[in-house]
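User: Predict the structure for this protein chain, please.
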Amino acid sequence: MAPSDAAEGFSMQWVRAISLPRLHVTVSHRGKHSDLGEDATMNLRDAPKLLVAFLSVVALAAGYQAGKPTIVKGYVLDSACAFTKNLKKPISGECATACAKAGSPLVILTDNGTIYWPIADTTPSGGQNEKLLPFAGQKVIATGKVFEKGGSRALVIEKIELLSDQK
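Assistant: Here is the predicted structure, written as structure tokens:
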């Protein structure tokens, strides 16, 4: 017997030694008992798998957060400048446009420094620069649904327009 066969044999013996008995299911309803027989017999070693599957579904359902309708006011600028230059507003519309055309995603930067990443709620999803490019470097008001995860905020834009009180 090869060493791996010995180890495998040991593992199988150990698994057989801890195998659990079958569970026989009986249903009671209003004092009447019904034996479901062999069709409803469940192996107890399947119970942890079923529990994990059930808890996974519950966790996914609890973790799902539908977008919250909101209104966001802020400047449209490229994400690189928003993070690396610590800007309160864009350098210029031309600068934001050039960065966006070079591939930098446009974001909305609010007066309090919150950055909203524009996203699509479609699958497959697509970039949102085309929707934001006409507003590059300008202050806008956008309505849509906000999603938050891990400190990031994303906005599915339903409507966007220039803010009338440009500062």
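Residues 47-63 form the longest helix (17 residues).
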